[in-house]
Amino acid sequence: MVTEFVPVQELSKSLKAVPKNYIAPEDKVPVVTREPGKSVPVVDLCDFNLSPEQHERVVREIASASSEWGFFQVINHGIDVTKPQKVSREFFELPKEEKLKYAAKEYGFKSDGYGSKISNAADAVQLWRDYFFLCTSPKRNLDSWPAQPLQYREVMSGLSDDFLMLTRKILGFLSEGVGLPTDYFEKCFGVPNQSILTNYYPGCPEPDKVLGIEPHSDFGGLTLLLQDGVPGLQVLQNNTWVVVEPIPGAITINISDLLELMSNGRYQSVIHRVKVNASRPRMSIASNYSCLFDSTVAPAPELIDEDHPQLYKPVKFGDYVQEVVKKGPTGKAYMFINHDSKPEYMLLPKH
Ligand code: OGA
Ligand code: NI
User: Fold this and answer.
1) If both were cysteines, with which of 119, 154, 264, 350 could 299 make a disulfide (CB 3.0 to 4.6 Å apart)?
2) Which fold has domain 8-293?
3) Which residues form the Fe2OG dioxygenase domain (predicted)?
4) pLDDT, tens digit, for every residue of 74-103?
């Protein structure tokens, strides 16, 4: 059960210094912002009016971004992103008492609701972030979603539908990108397990001492993300943090762990983190798409051959998530195949 929590948004109103339990371990990795040739690729989807040549270009660009960066942004995707951002921001601007009516009942994104801490461990470093978590597929429990602002439920439900459709299309491009039939990865996932997490990162008196989200890879299949105009998201590339520049209206997409596994490593689930700002709050809306917890996923047999040995063992998604929750989001330890901390089920059997 979640006990009382103090939203970071409330803390940030009065504090001049960051409380000890929010101070993140120091990170020695340098940050790069706008170095030429160093930004996350942007793919123009042309509102899906794609000639055969353009279709081929999109497949090529998405496949190469997903293998080299694990991240890309799409523009002209046909989705209205302003309404979901507006209702979400309006929710976070409500009085604390109104928001706390929706306090999440459990830690670790198991149920719909408003929260801040993701674990109650005494030694856990707290994140400079509040969130609202929505389970959106296979089932939506709209009664537990905010009733204020009035349009919230309808707009966020619509965003879930729009994201399901876009995800299907992106999975199609990703399947074709490794020479598989268009519906291949969609079929591997089966019934969509989708959630929407709105992250709210208040301004911070000492922004360099805290993290909005610590370095992690996403444990689902594919993540779609709306950024507002404020930078904060950084992706690890060649041992450097690269800022994902917010492009108005764009959707940021990243390969998550299950797709790395299904694609036998052709696509990469890359480590990223979130920094916060001194005065400007930042909000993002992240939607995760994966399979149901009792489904087992495996590398596509078509992607295993002499040149591409099998890198991962099949895994039941629920077991994988439990492992992540138990150990906390420590980078990408569960996916590294040559890593001591990898759990047993990710190892190849010894011959
Ligand atoms: C996440 C995440 C990035 C952001 O929610 O997993 O990485 O910009 N969010 O908020
Ligand atoms: Ni993430």
Assistant:
1) 264
2) Jelly Rolls (2.60.120)
3) 192-291
4) 999 999 999 999 999 999 999 999 999 999
